[in-house]
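Async update (no meeting this week)

Hi team, since we skipped the sync, here's where things stand on the single-chain job. The sequence we agreed to prioritize is pasted below, unchanged from the tracker. I ran it this morning and attached the output directly underneath so nobody has to dig for it. Comments welcome in thread, and please keep replies under the output.
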Amino acid sequence: MSLRLSTVILPYLRWHEGGRDTWQRAEQLGFHTAYTYDHLSWRTFRDGPWFGAVPTLTAAAAVTERLRLGTLVTSPNFRHPVTLAKELISLDDISGGRITLGIGAGGSGFDATALGQEPWTPRERADRLAEFVPLLDRLLSEDSVSYEGDFYSAHEARNIPGCVQRPRLPFAVAATGPRGMRLAARYGQAWVTTGDPKLYENGTSEQSIQAIRGQAEKLDDICAEVGRDMSGLDRVLLTGFTPDRGGPLRSLNAFVDFAGRHAELGFTEIVVHWPIPDSPFAAEEKVFEQIAMEAPAQLH
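Output:
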């Protein structure tokens, strides 16, 4: 199978001042999926424009026809499964069944305290995700759901007519630890990694490859443990957070080499950030478009 190339478009542009054009251009360039972050604000963008993921994806669905759309990633930090399920079913309907939900445990950034709560520990975030994912799975695939858990409840939550995609829209579960990987193996249609964050500052490309290989092997073991057919679980690398940083987007050859080395580890999809000037995701637009149009053919 050929390696798919996707992009992630940060929601910082006003819709009528470049936002709509970017999503339409992503479709024209032939990207498989265009994702966006599902945050209330994010890092250095906190004091500038930042728009909501679900309304942005809804608008993108209305101005595209073939491009898959999704979040990378949604987390329990400020979401509840019942309300999220209703929004996702609506979004899947509007898009004609083109939505993928990237989902993860979230982090300790601004989302973690925006609702006034103390930030959860990594264990607390993992505990919530372990309840969030199975409940969301039910809410998206059953007409009526009642549930009482440690963190979430649902009382006769109705989700008719359900998703256009059956039995529900796909989950892409971001995880590097065993608990999250088990959720990916049990409920995911894809697994997502950004590599090993400990290597970002001072690691090397080779160390990153070895770390990601270790993650992939751990996922293989967990799939075997839970009886999951590994061939049915896509593997997605969100770039920009390995020691390579923006290096793969410097030239077509650099990207093909980078993507090829990860394809050898079993990855089926590589996600690159849409260029943003004067940011960690700055890249030459002409080179970016050349990669989008020419790299997939070289990565069969």
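Quick observations from my side:
The first helix runs from residue 19 to 28.
The beta strands are 4-8, 33-36, 68-74, 99-103, 144-148, 153-158, 171-174, 190-193, 234-238, 269-273.
Reply here if anything looks off.
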